[in-house]
């Protein structure tokens, strides 16, 4: 590979989602560094950035910046807007929320299930960051910790949730995005490759995911949602990467423990993920009759 000084510079264009001039950013390896660069470009503290979407200024959870950025993708940064405090009565076991996080300490709402407890509450929206539950501050918590806390809230009681919504442009006020459908197999960006961000280690430029990887990542993300109430394509991609060359579920479980031990995944979940990776392999390598 060429020496680092000879590699082409990767420069991305960015705007604040509620409206701003276009900035140019480069030289970031992970989400925290990306937010710092956005902060520098627009003269705002990096902690003001809640999340980024690719190629749209809207709060579109199917266009959320996860672990990969297409080399020609345009980055829109959503910053903190209005704070709100809401009392919610938990009338059912499930609130109907799917949680994700931005990789830099903020967990937020990725989906609201239609007809669910939260769906009835008009002031809670997709894209809202969860600041605290019953006074317990959640800044710095991962999505799975927040989802677990929501799940464990007692049924038949009220709880208080503090949220921060993304700052909206005037044309966006009043729109309520349900975010209930996932964009199956949509590949963002028209670039020839993607910049893969990692929480540990340097970012790397990679080819677009193969059909197998794309299918497997989506299946694993669906399992994360059904078992744990979270969606996280970067986590799903890491799991697919760990599992694609393993010979059996035990080897896979061991690799997960070593790399992602903090999550303490239940055995049946690990087994289902192993199955999903196997199904994706078969589905994409099976020859038509």
Question: What's a concise summary of this model?
Answer:
The protein has 289 residues and is an alpha+beta fold. It is 28% helix and 24% strand.
Description:
This protein has 289 residues and is α+β, with helices and mostly antiparallel strands. It has 3 domains: 11-79; 80-166, Pdz3 Domain; 209-283. The protein is 28% helix and 24% strand. It is built from 6 helices and 12 strands. Strands 1, 2, 3, 5, 8, 9 and 10 form a 7-stranded mixed sheet that branches. Strands 4-11-12 form a 3-stranded antiparallel sheet, with no helix packed on it. Strand 8 (129-133) and strand 9 (136-137) form a beta hairpin. Helix 3 crosses helix 4 and helix 3 runs antiparallel to helix 6 (267-285). The longest helix has 19 residues, at 267-285. The relative contact order is 0.14.
């Amino acid at each position: 590979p060429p020496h680092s000084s000879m590699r082409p510079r990767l420069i991305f264009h960015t705007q604040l989602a509620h409206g701003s001039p276009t900035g140019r950013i480069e030289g970031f390896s992970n989400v925290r560094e990306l937010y710092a660069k956005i902060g520098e470009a627009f003269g705002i503290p990096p902690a003001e950035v809640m999340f980024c979407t690719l190629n749209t200024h809207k709060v579109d959870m199917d266009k959320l910046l996860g672990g990969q950025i297409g080399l020609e993708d345009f980055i829109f940064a959503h910053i903190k807007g209005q704070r709100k405090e809401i009392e919610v009565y938990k009338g059912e076991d499930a609130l109907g929320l799917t949680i994700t996080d931005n990789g830099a300490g903020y967990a937020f709402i990725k989906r609201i299930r239609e007809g669910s407890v939260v769906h009835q509450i008009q002031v809670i929206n997709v894209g809202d960051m969860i600041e605290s539950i019953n006074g317990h501050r959640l800044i710095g918590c991962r999505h799975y910790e927040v989802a677990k806390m929501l799940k464990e809230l007692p049924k038949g009681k009220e709880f208080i949730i503090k949220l921060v919504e993304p700052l909206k442009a005037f044309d966006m006020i009043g729109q309520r995005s349900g975010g209930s459908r996932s964009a199956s197999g949509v590949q963002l960006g028209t670039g020839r490759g993607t910049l893969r961000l990692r929480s540990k280690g340097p970012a790397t430029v990679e080819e677009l995911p193969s059909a197998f990887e794309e299918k497997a990542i989506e299946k694993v993300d669906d399992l994360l949602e059904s078992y744990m109430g979270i969606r996280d394509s970067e986590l799903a991609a890491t799991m697919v990467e760990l599992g694609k060359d393993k010979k059996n579920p035990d080897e896979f479980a061991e690799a997960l423990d070593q790399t992602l031990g903090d999550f303490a995944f239940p055995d049946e979940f690990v087994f289902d993920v192993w199955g999903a990776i196997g199904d994706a392999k078969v589905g994409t390598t099976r020859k038509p009759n």
